[in-house]
Specification:
This protein is an alpha/beta fold. It contains seven helices and twelve strands. The strands form four sheets. Strands 10-9-8-11-12 form a five-stranded mixed β-sheet, with no helix packed on it. A three-stranded antiparallel β-sheet has the order 4-6-5. The longest helix has 43 residues.
Length: 286
């Protein structure tokens, strides 16, 4: 409603240098932009990924998921799991295409070039339960529990009966429980156990470090060649590549010095031959 987005600026993907909320046009400049999508904006489906060429994979995945989805295939955007292979079981994230594409266009119109989009939660082998207000909402909103494990992701309110019914099953697993600072105390009372405090900023950084990318198929970023060159240049300028830069500068200096010495040597040879020719001419024709 306000047109503002929560943002986190990080120098290394681990530390937070700046965070807050701002309109898209006022977001801080960054070398790489990762959009984090809330739990409630995605649905998750596990399928046997079709063996199809990259150009036809989008249509093949839509055909497999057609019976599992209520909306028309054209209204939905799908993204397969990272490192997924044809013929194997794979998770597929599904999102409303018109909304998602509209958000990306609005960001790019405001001058924010989105490199990647990642879910804030995704299915993984390690069970994880996180208590928060609805992602991106005020801290005073009703508490929500997001549960993710190898069977998928569920975002439900703790005020309903479903969460209470599922709690014994979830508690029987070696799960990791976290909570937003604003709801940590009520979360511990509801759970009956301690939780690890995890801010919204830290959670967004975790999502950005994941391998997931929801920008696939027709919503993949364009100008990949330009982006690849830009990413390569950015990596080359990073601290990790400083020894390589020093080595290249030293090599260039040595090459220039070597060329100058070789040119001086050749000039000495030319001068010596010119002197010899002059002496020969004088001795022949005194």
């Amino acid at each position: 409603a306000t047109g503002e987005l929560a943002f986190v600026l990080t120098p290394d993907g681990l530390a937070v240098s700046k965070h807050g909320r701002a309109a898209a046009a006022l977001l801080p400049k960054a070398d790489t932009v990762v959009v984090v999508v809330a739990d409630t904006d995605l649905s998750w489906h596990r399928i046997k990924l079709p063996k199809a060429p990259a150009a036809r994979l989008r249509a093949a995945v839509a055909g497999v998921l057609e019976e599992q989805l209520l909306d028309e295939p054209e209204a939905l955007h799908r993204a397969v799991a990272p490192e997924a292979a044809g013929g194997r079981n794979s998770w597929v994230a599904v999102i409303d295409k018109a909304w998602f594409a509209g958000e990306l266009r609005a960001l790019e119109k405001a001058g924010v070039q989105v490199d990647r989009a990642a879910p804030v939660s995704w299915p993984e082998d390690t069970p994880l339960g996180h208590f928060s207000a609805a992602f991106g909402a005020d801290a005073g909103a009703p508490m929500q529990l997001t549960w993710s494990d190898a069977n998928g992701v569920a975002a439900i309110s703790v005020q309903g009966a479903l969460a209470r019914q599922m709690l014994p099953l979830w508690s029987a697993q070696p799960a990791r429980w976290t909570a937003h600072p604003a709801v940590a105390a009520p979360a511990e009372r509801w759970l009956g156990a301690s939780v690890l405090v995890l801010t919204e900023e830290q959670r967004m950084l975790q999502a950005a470090r994941s391998l997931w990318n929801l920008r696939q198929f027709d919503l993949a970023p364009r100008h990949r060649g330009v982006r690849a060159l830009r990413d390569a240049w950015r990596r080359f300028r990073s601290a990790a590549w400083r020894p390589v830069r020093y080595g290249l500068v030293t090599l260039v200096v040595l090459q220039v010095a070597g060329l100058n010495l070789w040119a001086w040597h050749l000039q000495r040879q030319v001068d010596a031959k010119r002197t010899a020719m002059t002496q020969l001419l004088r001795s022949t024709h005194p």
